[in-house]
Each structure stands twice: as C-alpha cells, then as structure tokens.
Amino acid sequence: AMAEERTLAMVTCTAPVNIAVIKYWGKRDNDLILPINSSLSVTLHQDQLKTTTTAAASRDFTEDRLWLNGEEADVGHPRLQACLREVRQLARKHWGGSAEDVAPLSLSYKIHIATENNFPTAAGLASSAAGYACLVSALAQLYGVEGELSEVARRGSGSACRSMLGGFVQWQRGERPDGRDSLARQVAPETHWPELRVLVMVVSGEKKPVGSTAGMQTSVDTSPLLKHRAEVVVPERLELMMRHIRERDFEGFGQLTMRDSNQFHATCLDTFPPIFYLNDISRHIIALAHRFNAHHGHTKVAYTFDAGPNAVIFMLADTVAEFVEVVKRSFPPAANGDQFVRGLPVGSASLPEELLAAVVMEPVPGAIRYILHTQPGPGPQLLDDPSQHLLGADGLPRR
C-alpha cells in the first residue's frame, strides 16, 4: 500500500527576487558559477514579486517536462539539469542505500515542473534568481532533502543563491576550486529593519542589449577596473555595508548603495567594447535622486541599477509618499494613471513650492511604465494548500 501512495508526489514553493546593493559581476569559474567577488543583497517581499513552482514526480511520467508561465520550455537547459542532478545527489546521500524504501519517492521517476512569475518576466527584474531559488526549493521538498541548498541554487544562476534566504544576504565568494564554500548566508532577517521600503521603477520592457552571462565574461576578460573592484574595493565595502545594515544607518547604507551601483556601471563602460545598461531615463532618475537628497540636505533615497535600465530605489517609509509624488511630476504617467503605482499602498503628499522648484525639472511624460512599492521579505516558502499547485493530478498545467 505504501508504494501505491507514492506513485505521484507533488509540492509547490514560492521564492523571492533579490536586489544586490554590493554587486556581483564576473565569474572565476563559469561551469560552477563561482564569482570573482562576494556580494550583498536585499530580498524583496513575495507579496509583490515572486516565482511559484510546482514540481511533481510520478512513475507514470515518461519524460521530464517543464512549463514556464504556461508555455512548455526546454527541460534540457544545462543549468536546470545541473540543479536536478545536484538535488538528486543530495537525496541519494541523505536517504542512503535504503533510498527506494524510505525516500519520499523513487529517484528514477521522471519529473514535471511548472513555474510562473507574478511579475512580467520582460520587466528586466532578475527572474532567474527567483526562478532557480524556487526550482531548488521545490525539488528539495519533493525529494525530502534539507541542508545547504544555496550552493545548488548557485548552479542555476549565481544570484539565485541569495534568493534562498530572506532579509539581507551575503553571497560569500569562497576560496575552494570546487565551490563548496561559495554560499549565501543571512546578514540580518527582513524584520531587522522594518521601516525600509523599496520602489522598483520599471523603465522599459526591452530585452537587454547584452545578457548578463556574456556581459560579465567580456568584463572579466577586458576591464582592469573590474579586477581592481573585485580585489580591492568590494572586500572593504562589504564590511562597511554589513555595519550600516546592522546599525540601520540609512545615510551610510544609501550612499554606499549608490556608489556601488555607479561603480558596477563604470566597469561596464570600462569593458571593451563597452556595455551600456543605463539609458537616458535611468540617468534622469539618478539626477532626480541626487537633487532630492541635496534639497533635503541628507540621503533620503538611494538608487541601484542591475544589468538593465530599471531603477530600484531604497528609502524609509516616511519618504515614500513625497518621493512618489516627485516621480509622478517628473515622469507623468502616460495612460495607466490608475495602475501607475502598484504594490503596497502609497499615501498622498503635497509638495512644497521650493521642493518643486529645486527638484522637479522639465517633465518626461510616459518614460516610466509603472512603480512597484515593496519592502524586504522572507526566503522561499512551501505552500500547503493543494489548490495552489500549478499542475493537476494528471501532471499537466492546470490552466
């Protein structure tokens, strides 16, 4: 009877997006995805941004299959296969020789995976980090393995290892050539800094000019600034950033976040041929943030940009309403006025004349598609409610 019950096993997990405040750019090993420097990120809340993944295994499945946002996709992707292999290896180790009797399911069963994002994949938000963190969490639950999973997620996408934890997360570069010490660890939980807020400003849904994987390889090969950054600048900044987070020092945190973003984009410019991820609107946002801070006489907002034009802006809760109003005046919404601000509610603010005069320059209508208001959040979650599975009892997508 026991064997009968295990003929179909299914689990569903969710996982978060993370935003690096000390950037990861450059691998020292492309197969194992080992970075040239450590990095530090903030995990964003899954109420606003999350990937959901259902993984199912059955003796009735004839082949491994994968669906992304409802469309069937290539299950043979080398990085996906690496994650599968690693989790199955952990399961073998964990359940030992008795695997077939005790393990939650047979390792020889084929699996079906369905995954979807609650945000547009084209929005240039790091969907691979949430995607692989979610895949690895679901597989680990399916095979009944615990323990160090950030190393497995790293094999899917480097930044995915950071999405395995909530709050403030360091990805330690590690020293070993086999990558066993290249892991994520939590610097502080999301509850540590309850006033911290995040605005994601979605600039354009265009595909990146240069993918991250190709871009960082060219940077490693050609940028002397990147080498200096990895060896000299980042180790010092990492210590400083952890201190700012521990002390909840927004001034220090914000300044360093902006400097590190700027330096990452400088290494892209120092790459040969140069890579441009920021566009005119990105630069407008940067200038706006500096004018806003100058007007207030201290750091109230801090921008950071990954490999794309979208801005992620950190601030404390008491700044959100005023800054959103400044953004609306600077980049008046095209048509979707009602849908312009999404996520957590934003209060209304009236702007003093002198702020308007000092901060808001000639408006650029329609330049920003929407703003998403969110906050730091927890790591991957297991969903208990079977109605939330993305696959039906037949192992095929529900909708």
Automatic annotation (TrEMBL):
Keywords: ATP-binding, Cholesterol biosynthesis, Cholesterol metabolism, Lipid biosynthesis, Lipid metabolism, Lyase, Nucleotide-binding, Steroid biosynthesis, Steroid metabolism, Sterol biosynthesis, Sterol metabolism. Residues 379-399 are annotated as: Disordered. Gene3D superfamilies: 3.30.230.10, GHMP kinase, C-terminal domain. One of its GO terms (cellular component) is cytosol. Residues 198-382 form the Mvd1 C-terminal domain. One of its GO terms (molecular function) is diphosphomevalonate decarboxylase activity. This is Diphosphomevalonate decarboxylase. The lineage of its organism: Eukaryota, Metazoa, Chordata, Craniata, Vertebrata.
